[in-house]
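U., I forgot to send this yesterday:
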Amino acid sequence: MSCRKLAPRLDERRALLGAAAVAGVALIAASGYLALRTRSAAASEAKSAAPPAAAASADDNQLVQLSDSQLASIKVGPVVERDFPIQKEAVGTIDFNEHMNVQVFTPYQGRIIQTFADLGDEVKKDQILFTIESPDFIAAESALISAAGVLEQTTSALERAKKLYAVQGIDQNDYESAIANQQTAEGALRAARNAVAIFGKTEAEIDHIVAARRVQTALIVRSPISGRITARNAAPGLLEQPGNLPAPFSVADLSSVWMLADVLEADSPEFKVDQEVTVTVIAYPGRAFSGKITRIGASVDPNSRRLTVRSEVKDPKHELVPGMFANFVIRTGEPVRAPAVPLSGVVREGDGTMSVWVLTSDRHHFARRTVKIGLQHDGYDQILEGLRAGEPVAVDGAILLSNILFGGAS
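Result:
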């Protein structure tokens, strides 16, 4: 009977131990699960709180740190505000002012006797350029001397006729004939004087020819304007014809010259007559000559799609030489004020973007800043976006910073 009582008790004890073991395992598993979830949540929070590694790396790549020796090769200056004029530019050539460029021909056929000016000489108005022996001029002088002699003879005959007619020594018909002859001689003399005057002789010179009764063989050809001899084709002995090219001499007044510029068809509406222009030439760097637009072409060149604009430029010192290449600048609007950086401070990167390097507060780091540029004037780029006036930037040596960032230079 005692054995039967012990068996149920042993079974109950075994059941209790198994249940306790199962409960313990469940408790351990639950504790492990809770700990794992806690770690995962903490890791998640830490990961979300920390900045992305890629972003931090990208920011670090836009900074360049320089040593003290490297800083010595970089010039830093503030972004300044400057006025950028709204203007158009074109390239052209200097030419003679055709209104003041004269070809000097001989009025009549003849041979050149002597020349009195050479290429490049400055001459005054009415200065003698050359003399010519003209058969027509000699014939006109001869006719003048003859007409003067006839007039003297008819005048003397009329005086005698007046005295004889007063004492009835001649009849009225003879008296009237003497008057008619004298009037005819006066008319012939006036015509002869005019014929000689065509050759450029003054009244005093004509009177001298009449008084001296001597023919002058040399016909004088004078300069019609003051200026410079720009061409000479005259030489003693050459036979010249009126109007035959080339002219013996060409004289140009170079106190003003023309500047002929070919402008783009799209820019042509911006140009107006009387607008002021600025002209520069390679021969005089740093110099500017002022002028005004005097004529705008009536048609566009079908090949170049450009329009010719002519300006008159004052040149009192005769420094501009026809044929020189020239730059033509005209302001078409009011200047625009904007932040500006020297050209040496703006770098064009390989992808076409424009960069400026901004000095950070620790004075040893430069941060790359992408900017948008506009106009250029007097060695400065207009900054449209990316910078503010007053920011410290590398104004010289910016290309070195870009090489360090992208090329690995040190």
